[in-house]
Specification:
The complex is a heterodimer of chains A (253) and B (348).
Chain A (H helix, E strand, L loop, with lengths): L1 H19 L10 E12 L2 E2 L7 E2 L5 E18 L2 E4 L4 E5 L7 E7 L1 E3 L1 E6 L3 H4 L15 E2 L4 E10 L9 E7 L9 E6 L7 E3 L4 E9 L15 E2 L4 H10 L3 E7 L2
Parallel strand pairs in A: 1-15, 12-16
Antiparallel strand pairs in A: 1-2, 1-7, 3-4, 4-5, 4-6, 4-9, 4-11, 8-14, 9-13, 10-11, 11-12, 15-17
Chain B lengths: L1 H22 L35 H11 L31 E2 L3 E2 L30 H5 L8 H9 L4 H9 L6 H13 L7 H6 L7 H13 L14 E2 L15 H4 L8 E2 L21 H11 L19 H12 L4 H4 L8
Helix pairs in contact in B: 2-5, 2-6, 8-11
The chains are: A mainly beta (253), B mainly alpha (348).
């Protein structure tokens, strides 16, 4: 009789411990890692805050003191394959080197396109207090009219007639025709060099963001030096800067 | 023998339960908040969105928000807690002030709105610029003519405070203090402010009756005022131009600042009329001092030349002196002293 008790006790204990183990019946596809590295430049030369001196297409000189922008909803694709980063919100800040790279797990596969949103999707703009990259502490949140500043560029130009010759572009707005939430899809540079994600390996994409593109289509620092509200002028900058990204290198490990 | 087996089996079951329990992570301090239910008063509509959907209402979160609301630490010099402009005895507007006072002897540029029944307000502020109750405090907190502080400094002050880390743990599970938790706590306190127990409400519930004067005022109100100040919240949450001459000191064009749309020029939020007697003076710049001034505005003084004037006011609102007396009597029935004296909302 006692043997039976011990047997039953043993079974209960075994079952008890088994409960602790996480069971996962669906096989997860093999995972590798994608690392994305941003480098901010002006016409090919690395951006240097405050001291770097640059010239726009109108021949107007300028310097840059702040440059930051949101990259969100990142995913890679190839025809019918896709792998997305979850909870994907990043603030790329020229003043903070660690902000300029991030990694995420992706299914083992070859990918031909990198896709992301410049800015923060409309839902996050109407969902109250956020944290992490979206924390209002990051100085990318309007307090007078709720919403994220999707991209911010500040600096100076002798051509500016604003106070202290300021350049100040706070680009935001998440609804309507002048929305600054923009999806971008970039084809990787050489088809032979598709992004190849291998199991337990990290493959890297290097991207340059060229500030010069912000001022395409004849942006004039005398008349267009400050943009702090969503609108037609803000949209003009958005339509310019969506072209600022170039993939310069893919490293498959 | 049977009893022995039963006892033994019970023992086994008990041991196995203990084993199962051992799987769970145990924190040194248990997080067991007291969850609260947000009650919609009878006959009121469901709010368009549930402001507590991603911010579960708890007693600990509410009390933390209450302490923050009354704490001068949220302002630059310690003198301007939220409650300095939102006074409970004035239904959380500023009593007897057209413009409220802020840091360094400055004035605000708009009259402080009362802060109750916010759960039914999809857009906040006179211009509707704020789309969520949680992010509303960022505006007064950082405005140089209000609390004039930075979010960073406020968080540092709270982190260095003896009491706050433990209060954040009780409310949210750990002692980490960040902007999201602070804002969610304030939203729990302010979102819980519901005013629904005025004489008007008691009449609706059949607990009492209007006087003849009040009833006449209510009848007039339903015919001429209810289109914008819609019951039971006494606002339709819309933005309208009610024909005020532009104040050239401020040049406030209202909703247009937010939407950049010309047709929104000079439109302001239709304020609730609950507790209206306590929230004087009136209008977005507090230019009208008494309820009678407001009624005179709608009957005689409003200007009908602005292109965005609300069509309902194109011919003003015809009122006799008796109508006005009746209306004032009715509007006074919207005072809710159980709200303005509710100790749950008072300074802790």
């Amino acid at each position: 009789m006692r043997k039976i008790y011990i047997g039953v006790l043993f079974c209960i204990i075994v079952v008890g411990f088994m409960q602790c183990e996480q069971t996962n019946d669906t096989p997860t596809p093999q995972q590798g890692t994608i690392r994305i590295n941003f480098k901010n430049t002006v016409k090919g030369t690395p951006l240097v805050l405050n001291t770097g001196s640059y010239t726009n297409a109108n021949g107007q000189a300028y310097t840059v003191s702040k440059f930051k922008y949101y990259i969100s909803n990142v995913f890679v694709t190839n025809i019918d394959k896709s792998s997305a980063e979850s909870g994907s919100y990043h603030l790329i800040d020229q003043a903070n080197a660690t902000s300029q790279s991030f990694s995420f797990g992706a299914n083992v596969e070859q990918y031909s396109h990198l896709n992301f949103t410049i800015g923060v999707d409309s839902i996050r703009n109407v969902s109250g207090a956020q944290t992490g990259a979206l924390d209002p502490l990051n100085d990318m949140f309007w307090t007078w009219s709720t919403g994220y500043i999707m991209a911010k560029l500040e600096g100076n130009s002798p051509a500016s007639t604003q106070v202290n010759n300021k350049l100040e572009y706070h680009i935001g707005g998440f609804s309507g025709v002048n929305s600054a939430v923009k999806k971008v899809s970039i084809t990787l540079p050489i088809t032979a060099q598709m992004l190849n994600v291998r199991s337990n390996k990290t493959s890297e994409i290097f991207i340059e963001a060229d500030i010069d593109k912000w001022f395409s289509n004849n942006i004039n620092f005398t008349t267009e030096a400050a943009i702090m509200t969503p609108g037609v002028l803000s949209k003009k900058i958005v339509d310019n800067y969506i072209n600022m990204f170039t993939i310069t290198q893919v490293v498959n490990n | 023998m049977k009893i022995k087996i039963t006892i033994s089996l019970l023992l086994f079951v008990a041991i196995s339960i203990l084993l199962l329990d051992g799987c769970k992570k145990t924190d040194a301090l248990v997080y067991k908040p007291t969850y609260l239910t947000f009650t919609i008063p009878n006959g009121w509509p469901q709010p368009a969105t549930n402001i507590f959907a991603n911010n579960p209402l708890t007693e600990e979160g509410f009390q933390l928000g209450r302490k923050l609301f009354y704490d001068g630490k949220l302002s630059k010099d310690g003198n301007f807690p939220c409650a300095s402009c939102h006074q409970q005895f004035a239904a959380f507007a500023t009593f007897d002030h057209d413009f409220s006072h802020g840091f360094n002897n400055s004035f605000t540029t708009r009259n402080a709105l009362p802060t109750f029944n916010l759960a039914w307000m999809p857009l906040l502020h006179w211009d509707g610029g704020i789309n969520h109750i949680e992010v509303q405090p960022l505006a007064p907190l950082t405005a140089t003519n209000e609390m004039a502080e930075t979010l960073e400094n406020v968080l540092t002050k709270l982190k260095n405070d003896a009491a706050y880390p433990e209060l954040f743990r009780k409310a949210f599970g750990n002692t980490e203090i960040n902007s999201q938790k602070m804002l969610k706590a304030i939203a729990q306190f302010m979102g819980s402010m519901v005013s629904s127990n005025s004489k008007y409400d008691k009449v609706q519930r059949g607990e009492t009756t209007f006087t003849a004067t009040e009833q006449n005022g209510y009848t007039f109100f339903k015919a001429k005022c209810n289109a914008c100040h819609t019951e039971p919240l006494f606002t339709d949450n819309s933005f309208r131009n009610n024909g005020l001459v532009i104040n050239t000191f401020i040049n406030d064009f209202g909703r247009m600042k937010i939407t950049n749309v010309k047709s929104d020029s000079l439109k302001f939020k239709v304020p609730t009329l609950r507790n209206v007697e306590l929230t004087f003076p009136y209008m977005h710049d507090g230019r009208l001092y008494s309820l009678r001034d407001v009624l005179d505005h709608y009957s005689s003084n409003l200007i009908t030349t602005q292109p965005t004037l609300d069509p309902l006011l194109a011919n003003r609102i015809a009122m006799t002196a008796t109508d006005k007396n009746n209306l004032v009597a009715f509007l006074r029935t919207l005072n809710d002293t159980t709200f303005t004296k509710n100790v749950r909302f008072s300074q802790p």
